[in-house]
Batch of 2 targets.
Target 1
Amino acid sequence: MSTVQHPVIEAMGVARQQVPDLHRSSWEPRALRNSLLTTGAWVAAILASVPLFSVLYMLIMRGGSRLTWEALVDLPPAGFEMGGGFGNAIVGTVVMVGLAALIAVPTGIVGAVSLAELGPRSKLAEAVRFAAKTLTGLPSILAGVFAYASVVLLTGTYSAPAGALALSVLMLPTVILTAEEAMKMVPRITKDAAYGMGCTRSQVIWKVVLPTALPGILTGVMLAVARAAGETAPLLFTALFSSYWLIDGVRIKLMQPTASLAVLIYNFSGMPFENQIELAWAASLVLVILVLFINVLSRLIGRRRV
Amino acid sequence: MTTIATTNGRMTGMKDVVIDCHLKQVFYGQFLAVRDSDVPIEKGKITGFIGPSGCGKSTVLRSLNRMNDLIQGFRFEGHVHFHGQDVYARDVDPVVLRRYIGMVFQQPNPFQMSIFDNVAFGLKLNRYRGHVADRVEQALTRAALWDEVKDKLKNNGLSLSGGQQQRLCIARAIATEPSVLLMDEPCSALDPIATRRVEELMVQLKQKYTIAIVTHNMQQAMRVADTTAFFSVEMSKGGRTGYLVEMGPTQQVFENPQEKLTKDYISGQFS
């Protein structure tokens, strides 16, 4: 009746006469392979998340019962003492990671600016990029050796700044590389708009490139912070450990051995006392929650666009 | 080609020319991109640049406010006089120049910030001391966008539609009251309705600003341009080199072109 033929039906020619069978046949090889591969992908995905959830489960089971207010605010117990907590280790971790971020974040972002904007293909940039990529794979204990040699030996004491320096060495490459990547994602046309408005190069970077790249940069910073918070090895012979508060009355005494959650877990888990082992579990739970929290935060910041 | 010089000579002698471009050669590295093009931009008028792809019309436009300086290997030989000063003179700061010669690009490119901040950007850049909100409203009104965005000035500029984004970019460019506005194919990413709005806007804006526009669309040039410059491209040693074929009042260029190349291009015949 109609003179206009549907192109697809026209092409199919033979099928024009009868209605094609569109029902799903699950035993056809094509469909079978499809469901097999889909199932395989799901199984692999679940397997990949087993370690995280089993660790979380164990930590909640073993450490959850000890996670009391007392544990969060008290000092670590001595040998046969009962009770106690790891308040000073929480403070120590926060202070050292904070100091490390103060060192690594500005250095890393300014370094990334030079890599992404000033001379992306210069010899120096290539060298710095190579160094940063190598540093990401640096065994964390070597960062500790570096801080030991450059701060502990020099000042004659284990201290929070020494630990912070070791952690900042670990944070720096992550910050540089993610910040550079985020700045490279800023479209050429956006920068052109800024130049077209009469911006100098530094105005383009400060007023347009950095604000546009900010979510990406913050994601990198958060990931670096999360990694640093969980590190033990770099702190072992830089910050060491302490059973006392970092803050003495109103004064913060940085130049002394400093407790951290990671080292507390390492120390207490090897002790023959039930009380300490329980505290190590509780501290692990706190550390995992802290890292998880930072990771979720970085996800939220990274997603916040437009 | 000989007619170029005579046509231009007459025009510069008679009319009020804001930007007088005498382009001898433009290179990207070793590649000669454009040669021998004298393009006077008259005050208070819309000058349209047309021609096939690769004919150098965008290069010429972007040479006027030294945007091409950002491209590595760019070299300009010739003069561009803006209010009597050569913008390629050694002591001219291209950053300052661009504050007088604003630009609107092919792709709408608002900044990742609020609508208000986008328009206020240039004012803050120039440390404008007056009432910023008034100037923002004025610019948005002139860009025919105010009514659509007045209730959501805090929203991100990128949340607008493509046509609105382009008008936002125009508002951003005119907020600082530049004397010339360069538009590099401003409608090529827009649909016909948004295109029509931007075209109406250009015609309104020419009372205050001088406009130079590159367009691929000959109908657009006919609709908005007072003067039309036709560029063409020919094979040369380094590759394809563009040059100005003919420039004159739009009606003349389209109805009675002096050059065969122009006639062929406009009637859709290519050799």
Note: Strands of chain B lie at 17-28, 31-42, 46-50, 74-82, 85-86, 101-104, 180-184, 210-214, 227-236, 239-249.
Target 2
Amino acid sequence: MADAVATRETLRVVGRAVSRHDARDKVAAATAYAADWALPGMLHAAVLRSPYPSARILKLDTARAVALPGVAVVLTAKDVPRNTLATDVPGQTTTVGPLRATLHVLAEDRVRHQGEPVALVAAETLEQARAAVEAIDVEYERTPGVFTPEAALAPGAPRVHDTGNLLAQWRIARGDVATALARAAVVVEGEYTTQLVDAAYLEPESGVAWIDSDGVITIRLSTQVIEHFRDVAEVLQVPQNRVRVIGTYLGGGFGGKEDVTVEVYLGLLALKTGRPVKMVWTRQESLLARAKRHPYRMRYRTGAAATGEIVAQQIELLGDAGAYAYLSALVLLYSTVTAGGPYRVPNVEVQARVAYTNNPPTSAMRGFGGMQTVFAYESQLDRVARALGMDPVEIRRVNALRRGDSLPVGQVVETHVALPELCEQAWAALGPPTPPRAPHVRVGRGLACNLQPYGRIVWLHDWSSAWVGFEMDGSLVVRCGVPDVGGGQASSLCQIAAEILGVSLERVSVHISDSALTPLAGTTTASRQLYMSGNAVLKASRELREQLLGVAVTMLGADAGALTMADDLVRGPGGRTLALPDLLRQCARAGVPRGHLAVYNAPAGEPVDLATGSGKVFPDYTYGAHAAEVEVDTETGVVRLLRYAAAHDVGRAINPQSVEGQIQGGAVQGLGYGLMEEVVVEDGINLTTSFATYLIPTAADVPDVEPVVVESGEGLGPFNARGIGEPPIGPPAAAVANAIADATGARLTRLPITAERVARALGRLDGEP
Amino acid sequence: MIARMVLNGRPRELDVRPEQTLLEALRDTLGIFDVKEGCGEGVCGVCTVLLDGRPVSSCLVLAPAVRGRAVTTLRGLERDGGLHPLQEAFVRYGAVQCGFCTPGMLLTALAFLEREPRPDRERIRAALEGNLCRCTGYTKIVDAVEAYVRDNGHG
């Protein structure tokens, strides 16, 4: 491929930190988000949710609500044409373990978590809708619940589902762990606990539905997955081609808008009333009801030789799925595959389980199972290094995966692993050490690495499609069903098309995220859109270029190989040029299309037997190394971040500014996870349903994040890019924990690392840290 | 009841209910969608508008209370039909990702710079503390504000 050897100097648009078209629209308040939409005669909708984590519904009477002024309709389970919603991955073609995941659109005889939807209302005003929700009579009989995975898996525990409380389990075994541990120079044992956290995007779940003039049920919403139009059609029992989803530019997603949110409710209400309907969740509702990140308990035994080389890892993972499966089995699979970290581990055993409880459901969130384990494996490695008196960079250099090595699951690493240089550069970026400000303040530094897959599991047979074409004036149009979550997904596609077709970026227009009108591109999840849709646009652009140059050849009298497209025209030998409008008119005369549709298929494979380590699970991985410098107040336990550097090998940065933005933003989300964020749930009741109690980092909580962008030129994406959406969220918690250990000697093993826990670890407060 | 106010520099009459918030009046009654709602309880800063030049959470202000006062939303920053230089700086320095916090962030930053035209990074961070951003990690937002201060004669 020509691009593989293209240097930054030969590229005009790709690799440049160009300003994004969507950023210009957003600062000008021109972007219409999902809630910024209104139609004549529009109704407003609200959801009745269960107040209890585990109960039977003895009575559900809507008569009083229906009679209230302004109420158009009240719906319960019996009104839903098919009350079962599939929560499998859209587009999936091969079953992944016990993943036939479903739930009821509206609760029938039971509720299994606080916030579970029970009824829907649409009314003339939002106040009327909310009043009607209050007027629905429900009689619950509370039933015993289970609130930790350990309790859920104990004999005789109340069953969350009739199938039992063990939702999924995976196992990997390679080599002889027991013997290797027995012979190891040092063995470190640790138990690590991570907490329930929320995506906490600033735009709550929202959308508007209407029945369009062609009778198609049209839903305009904030979603990472427009392909849920099929799930809506299933529930409504209408043909899939009678439902259209228009995805808006999202006010953040981070995995929380991967599963269905408002679209099924909106479709139902529009269908039943024949009128436009709007639903916007409140922040409280979003924090209460949306699926969150799995809390994990992780037990690690790590054995290393005197040289620092890891000889064995014995790993047990236990996750809390909450009340419904959603994507838990897949999240656990990611954890299982990445549990050993980006290191060579000859002997390894991973036992992973995830259980149903009556807690809020957990599902996708940025990092998707590749995150919890980083806290464990990087804390373990740090402890090994300390036991052996090794430097944090050196122990990672010794153990880093290299091309040709295989992961515990049997997948051979096919691309460069830049871990040693990432560690060195991140560590160096911290600069000279900061002296402590006072005698009771200690300063320390920590390093943490990770690997995160990009692209979907190979047996899902992932694909994306895109259409690229010229208008008669030489302006360019890209159509691609990619949802833009704010990472610059759409603008990167413009750069790629502009690069190949020699068009200036201002002359490219992009239409995205419409299940009826844009070629389907799959989900904006799994760090896959630049990789997948970038490749689809690259392919479409190249094939279109060939198509057009075939016509230009006759006009310029030269071989296609002698022609270039640049500066909004075609250049031939001897300084001859051809204006695009002239070429496009000739194409019209010759019957050559001015546009082209291309499909990119990711490398596909058969399901892997994890236990025997039989092969490839993901197309490829992105690697990173983060370095933190922290200050610990040994009297209060308060941890302050002084410096932070985050290095990732992104293969090639299509837009370096967007890449830096992903790295900086992901790192700060990861720091929130490490230091402050926690959804507090007591006996199934969520105590943190507001931003006053669910705290995410503010500008004053975090330092500048120094992004270190390494371009190995080895990735599977366009121009050899790797995915970078998720990877930067992984390392921060471990980097901070390692820095605290460096500063104080205290090892924090439970997230979030609050001042209280640090004070306990330092013996300043009683209790478990 | 009718409330007279100045909205983005122009006199405006608005029919408001006593219990309605300024945010609801702007979005639901006037269709001013450049004001967003993030939390509805004055924590996230997303719904920030300027009330007589000072940033407020419009979800906490009752609509009748703006009688006789000046309200500025993001659209009110336009200069001669073009973007304000701080808006330009947000684009150029990559301070915008999903953009949902951007209107409130811009308004808070501008009101702060009116009071304190030459802040350092630390002061900028402190000033923006009440406006949450979940995408950028704040570094590029601070970069943009700092560059604006430097490039527009404030520095």
Note: The longest strand of chain B covers residues 2-7.
